[in-house]
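Researcher: I'm comparing several assemblies side by side, and this is the next one on my list. It has 1356 residues spread over four chains. Same procedure as the others: predict the full complex and return the structure.
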Amino acid sequence: MQIGMIGLGRMGANMVRRLLHGGHQCVVFNRSPEAVKALSGEGAVGASSLADLVKKLERPRAIWMMLPGASVEPLIAGLVPHLGPGDILIDGGNSYYVDDIRIARELAARKIDYIDCGTSGGVMGLERGYCLMIGGPERAVQRLEPVFATLAPGAGDIPLTPGRKKPGGTAELGYLHCGPSGAGHFVKMVHNGIEYGLMAAYAEGIDILARANVGKREQSHDAETTPLRNPEEFQFDLDLRDIAELWRRGSVISSWLLDLTAVALTRDPTLAKFDGRVSDSGEGRWTIKAAIDEGVPVPVLSTALYSRFSSRGEAQFADKLLSAMRFEFGGHIEKPDGK
Amino acid sequence: MQIGMIGLGRMGANMVRRLLHGGHQCVVFNRSPEAVKALSGEGAVGASSLADLVKKLERPRAIWMMLPGASVEPLIAGLVPHLGPGDILIDGGNSYYVDDIRIARELAARKIDYIDCGTSGGVMGLERGYCLMIGGPERAVQRLEPVFATLAPGAGDIPLTPGRKKPGGTAELGYLHCGPSGAGHFVKMVHNGIEYGLMAAYAEGIDILARANVGKREQSHDAETTPLRNPEEFQFDLDLRDIAELWRRGSVISSWLLDLTAVALTRDPTLAKFDGRVSDSGEGRWTIKAAIDEGVPVPVLSTALYSRFSSRGEAQFADKLLSAMRFEFGGHIEKPDGK
Amino acid sequence: MQIGMIGLGRMGANMVRRLLHGGHQCVVFNRSPEAVKALSGEGAVGASSLADLVKKLERPRAIWMMLPGASVEPLIAGLVPHLGPGDILIDGGNSYYVDDIRIARELAARKIDYIDCGTSGGVMGLERGYCLMIGGPERAVQRLEPVFATLAPGAGDIPLTPGRKKPGGTAELGYLHCGPSGAGHFVKMVHNGIEYGLMAAYAEGIDILARANVGKREQSHDAETTPLRNPEEFQFDLDLRDIAELWRRGSVISSWLLDLTAVALTRDPTLAKFDGRVSDSGEGRWTIKAAIDEGVPVPVLSTALYSRFSSRGEAQFADKLLSAMRFEFGGHIEKPDGK
Amino acid sequence: MQIGMIGLGRMGANMVRRLLHGGHQCVVFNRSPEAVKALSGEGAVGASSLADLVKKLERPRAIWMMLPGASVEPLIAGLVPHLGPGDILIDGGNSYYVDDIRIARELAARKIDYIDCGTSGGVMGLERGYCLMIGGPERAVQRLEPVFATLAPGAGDIPLTPGRKKPGGTAELGYLHCGPSGAGHFVKMVHNGIEYGLMAAYAEGIDILARANVGKREQSHDAETTPLRNPEEFQFDLDLRDIAELWRRGSVISSWLLDLTAVALTRDPTLAKFDGRVSDSGEGRWTIKAAIDEGVPVPVLSTALYSRFSSRGEAQFADKLLSAMRFEFGGHIEKPDGK
């Protein structure tokens, strides 16, 4: 089918490619024209403006937006005057599901259908396909089924979960209509919250491996420092590349994130090109807020988020305050290396 | 090659089967004779006692122990008088690596080689193969290579990590000599610590999905209760089976644990047969202790462990104390349902 | 001065008493008339309705509301038609500061001043005085100074912080104009967030003391259970009452909450009358949300909140899921007592 | 009575002063002679060596050691040859209670009594008195009662906990015989574990206050950054000095640590002289290990410890790994400022 795509960054451009390979017609627009030009060369129809994109689509139109969260609403405001009843807008980015609920209601008043679609898959999605978590009105989701089916991985060689009986369900193809407006981004939000927790679990554990030789180092001895009592228990020089590779094979903790960890460690086991200042991009935060509203305890997901905050130095004032208290009650002076 | 196996529980019995299929000769012993009898019928050589098992093995012997941690040392004490120089003992269970270091030293004095082998794979290991994390002296590990190679999954259809150059390495076959005595169980310990974190991340996140409809419930209003401010944001009735199935396909959080989660939810999305009293079996605890000795912050792995403690009611006195303080400063009476 | 008080529960009634003792005139109203009658007998002027209360106050009026958060806005809606320019409304409860900002703006349009006042002190406030955290327009706060000064503890015998130079500041008297609308409840919210953290720190620590004799108990031994490796290190029968009393005297962790802990443990060291289902009443949740918005890592405050959730069984589905995963990968059956 | 003191650092020297003021005779020794000389000028008897100190004490002797944990055992080894039956050794530092149990047993074989005494009070102890948590044999503890009574704060003006009936108990005087060998340092260990949790609760909360004006700052907008959705809710410039002072008066969270926080913030609300690299000195770590052995969930105390680790950059490899994973799955490049 024909679909418009606005936002041709890392994700958007690859999704267009996957759609083109799947035989769909894509009319594409991007703030900077280079990306439009590049995809035009690969078979997409380039648009020079929003108005041009809308004009090049047959009614009822379907327009997919693949943009940073903060850019979605301004774009919708610019698009809506050009759209009409029966058109469909899809937000495939990482927007807050609470906004979806409101926006869908506003657009419904103009008879425009709004779909929120959480998209997972990253840079490998072009090849592997994208996992799609979809919210919105049934009729619009059904109309877009060919597009979802192409973007998703399909059944591939991942066996069906034993006991699964629902023939015709789409979850096993890698896309799912999760519920009404907001449900898609809600499920994607939690997906990312889980992702933060999984990543932190690997990172913490592998850090324990990386320091399994601390018993070989010199220890300082003073009232501020606890010497390691059992240095003979920490004499292991472990090969993180081999261990990551090993765990991919038959272990309980094998996963796609572990595959990527193995890639990163194989490239450079010291990870020297990274500073360790870890971004967080919204869904992790919203996941915690939703959990708190629901009264669900989420200590793992929360501490994973806070580790990211701390990695960027966001705890520094609190840390200074701890040192200040220690100075007040014990006269403790900070050690230069804090050890 | 020929190998003895002591301990024919869930894990041990299946490992014998996999070894038999791989053409090895297995002499087997178990406290209760039924398991011995069963495996004898499948091609193993049954032994009627430890002494009998040792007698039936050619020298130098290799004996694999697959037992609960607390049973290993008593067994070794019983075995050692029957063993001689050049024999190899393998502990394939979940023992504490600190014990391995000591035991290996003690046995080395008798010229017996000791191997600590962390074994992951669970009930599916018979078919999938076991991921083996091995510690101990080089010569003993080399002698057992045929056994490790059979137990491990082998390369299978899991592609090699891109950039990996080490030809002849065994990590890609699913077993690895990680280092000297203790290294195998150390790596397995951290593996399980990570496992706890991963499991908790999924469990917390899926719980958020499970309660995404709290906005539909009645709220009570009093000074002890915060009403949900935004019930309209929590109106989703999500199908957990479908979502677990979906995430297995193309998402960033796909993993073997997620596959198992999908199995469990497909069988019964209410998980009614479980009470939610979650055991922890040693490695999770030791992982935290090792991290603390190394000075590695592990908030995710720790809170995952504590969630298991709490699931069994272990926090109850602390909770009572919180209620008691609230009563003292605010006259707050516990609500019958604690809400 | 003259002040109206609406809401004569635990907090409101005692605040009226403290104001009466301080020589102020109080016109009081409550949904149930018994409380009005009781305070009338102690010198307050009773009102039979909101309209009656408003009528009995001289203009410009000052009306203090002491109500559960959910009741504040309906009350304001009912009051406003009776009020006029220059009147002041004070919300002394635990409302969300975000609401204060909006309500203050709405009332300002009617020239009614709105003050948000966080009030700490609990059941002992009548005698000790209340710690007041105040937000709102300067002129209104100044007009109410006599009321704040009476409700607050005053300097008492708590020495001024050394180095403090600000003569005439009110913080040392126990009340403070923290900033514009919302600032009072914001500071109170964080105060309560800290309170949750402090309480949990004591509760967790004292629980460690309470179980310092676990080494005396029988241990079960199987693959699901880690035996305590060092029972000889956990043979202490500690007297929690004595230790709480001891720590009140010269230790770094002495505090009012510890005083209360000592009271509770002295009354009954087993805390038998509590079930350990701990309520949380809004500020703890909002504190975490504010921290996340600010990007401040708050693992301690968060886990303190989640412990309360868990104490009420809110983690149960997540816990069941953990048991379900363990069953799938390891065939682990839940132990009846979860140990 | 007469007592020897070895170790005249911050704590030891002030304890000697308090003992001298209390009429006791103190024979003092220190590695560096300046401290001995200084205290000799204040009435103590200086010793030039361990042997000299022992010689100057009448039998049966009582010798108090006030040293960093790692120095205690070497000192005991040097002292013991000079001691005889009936002598008492007191370890007043922060040793691991597990060592106490062993050392006490070893010394008992020589008929030397060993007392482990946890000492809280910090630099203010000279004036306020020290809170003493004592473990060891009854007869030795009784013999030292005059010393404990002088070092402890005494009843002072802290009222007895209501309901407390135990006349003659010493907890209300600020010292307590907690139990057999190890019990004193066990209670002190948990005391410090709680201290870490309390400190972190204040630090996290006050950090939220410190950033309550983030809504005034410019925001960057891209796919890596979640813009603050509600900047109007974070416009507060709060005076941390005033708020700390305020909370000391009538609030639920008043405490000695809060008093010290107020001192530190009053001296410099920016805490510019601290880097925020926070030491941890043993008890916090041992507390977590004890909790894990007991199966007590301690998420608050653990995350407080880990925050200290992280403050010293100990999480850096784990953080790099997170960034590396994000690069692999999403092509995310670290932002220079990590935001």
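Model: For your comparison table: Residues 10 and 123 of chain D are 7 Å apart (CA to CA).
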